[in-house]
Structures are given as C-alpha cells and as structure tokens.
Amino acid sequence: xxxxxxxxxxxxxxxxxxxxxxxxxxxxxxxxxxxxxxxxxxxxxxxxxxxxxxxxxxxxxxxxxxxxxxxxxxxxxxxxxxxxxxxxxxxxxxxxxxxxxxxxxxxxxxxxxxxxxxxxxxxxxxxxxxxxxxxxxxxxxxxxxxxxxxxxxxxxxxxxxxxxxxxxxxxxxxxxxxxxxxxxxxxxxxxxxxxxxxxxxxxxxxxxxxxxxxxxxxxxxxxxxxxxxxxxxxxxxxxx
Length: 240
Prior knowledge:
By secondary structure, this protein is mainly alpha-helical.
C-alpha cells in the first residue's frame, strides 16, 4: 500500500464537482458509511482528500456494474480502511477491466433480430425480471453479456422464482470470488505499478480466471448431481 501525503483540501462542493456527482450524493454516501468523514477545519468546514475522491470513483464504478448500495457497502467493508488514493485507483482499475460489456439500446425489432427469435410479452417480462433487459420507453436497454444466456433460460422448464433465486446465488458468490481475486491481484502488484499496467495485467488474467471458474463450477456441479442422483462415478454428464 502506498502513502499519500497530500492534506485534505477539498470542500464538499469541490469534491462533488471533481467526482461529477452532487453534494447531496456525497452527503448521502457519507450517511450510509460509504465515505469516511471529512477532516473538520477552521469554522467547522469539512475538508476531503484524494482518498475520498478515489473512493467516490470506485463507488460509481461498482454502481455502473449494477451493484446495489447494500452490496457496495459490503464490498467496501472488506477493504482496508486506510487504503490510499493510489490503492483505490488500482482496485477500481481491476474492477473496471473485469466489468461486463456496456449496455446497448435496441428497439424490439432489433432485439428480436439480435437473438434470432420472436419475443412475446411474457418472454420480455421474464428478461426484465432477470435484469437482462430494461424497458426505456419504446426501446430496451440490453446487457450484452447476459442476453444470449437469458434467452436460453426462457426455454428452461423452471418457475421464474427459481431462476431468480439461482441468479441471486450466482451473483453473490461470483462477486465474493471477484473481490477475493481482486485483493490477491492488488497485493501481488503492490503500490508500484501504474493504473494502466494493472489494467493490462488484469485484462490478460481475465480469460484465464473465467475459464478456471467455469471448469471448477462444472466439476463441482457434476459432483453435486452424482450425490443427488446417486449415480456411479463412471456416469458421464458431459461438459459444455
């Protein structure tokens, strides 16, 4: 971890302007415990540091990925409270480099062409419930990383409540794994690498980690199925 020597000099208005958020947002995050309190100076004026600015940028990045404030709070609680602005910037670089593709806006016709099949109102409602698409007036905002999977799930003979519960389980465990892996990567590079170097390293590691997670999950699921169905070890369930 690096040490920043710059004293807290930003007022709440300056911090909000630098971070691209409102003063109300800064104060809201502070009341939620997402931001540490400012240093109180003369005339009871609060002063914020570069660490506050970096933490705000990290919060915005996590929100961009779709994390709720409660999930962000849990994520930040796992971080060391004395991380410097540089440490937080590196952590944000890791998070951003592993983020899914940016959302896209499509009309219903474009969406159906993208997935290669017509979508009824019930199909669209299920995709909305799974957060794969979001209605934006007459069009839809699409999560490209989940679209193909979401459409395939439409044909799975499971109740929507079961699918949503499974999604919650996968999100919670994948975020926990991502947090631990990010911490390992951050500790590995220390405070000497630039943010650009960390992004490059993370981008190279991402496909390896994804493949490792997929393989591990497939094997674990096969073991669970064998135990559940009491099948012999020689039974082959196949891996895709």
